[in-house]
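Final paragraph of the annual report: two paired records, presented back to back.
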Amino acid sequence: MSCGDPHETDCSEVLDHLYEFLDREMPDGECTKFEVHFEECSPCLEKYGLEQAVKKLVKRCCGSDEVPTDLRAKVMGRIDLIRAGHLVPEQDPAAGEPAAAPVPQEPATQE
């Protein structure tokens, strides 16, 4: 997406890293670049506002849910593998894992 106007920071770069900006997971200098871009570019500012609203809604609706310990450990393990360069984020790590067997259902009893 591009608004068609020239900017110091391209719209595609801003949108590619929007969640990093929202989560404050980028250096301050990068954040400043994005803030300047949002002042100049209303389509990107609109997208930012929408994503920010969705993030707040999810936090409000799901923020009190506890993450199961095994799920957290699995996710953190995958993050560690990606950081170490052993796994590419685009890979589907579940593809090599066997699927869980379905749980057999007991037949319904008639009364």
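The closing record of the year follows.
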Amino acid sequence: MDADLRILGRMSSINVRKVLWTCDEIGLAYDREDWGRGFASTADPEFLAKNPHGLIPVIEDEAGVLWESNTICRYLAAKHGRTDLLPASPRERAGVEQWMDWQATELNASWRYVFFALVRRDPAFQDKQKIREGADGWNAQMGVLEKRLAETGAFVTGATFTLADVVLGLVVNRWLATPITRPDYPAISAYLERLRERPRFLKYTGDGLP
């Protein structure tokens, strides 16, 4: 494919999948290259020249280089006028962004240890006490999402699907794919069924992608 948008990052990365899903929602053509775990090293000077943090994804388009997955998703939606995914109204846009920012901060911090321990099976993440604490912390943060979804009865920011659902839908999938004991969260279960009606959600959570 010869496209104006180039995406650097492996498919198994949850952050790369955020960007790919966003591209598919918009209908964008792109070229993707595998970088990261098991592929081209993000410590390579070529990559570090694009993202000094050595993290995926990175995109390149006619405007230059951009990194940070949630920022990339917002950029692409705004660039292509997709106000359904990212509203133009400052207040409505902030409502989407606050949940995206929560995903990137408090929620991500809660699942890191337990996910690397139980799914990635990383030897550096095998402290049993920290695994238990990580599972409890992750479940507590998912309780915040449960409460929100019980309030909206549909998607994270209300009745319509937005970028907040792209980034949080992938975390719901990861939470369910991780072998921990989980509370019964009926609003999240109903939310998952709504997401499963969207082919693009299935595309980026299928084949065992956690």
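The mean pLDDT is 97. This concludes the annual technical report; the extension proposal builds directly on these records.
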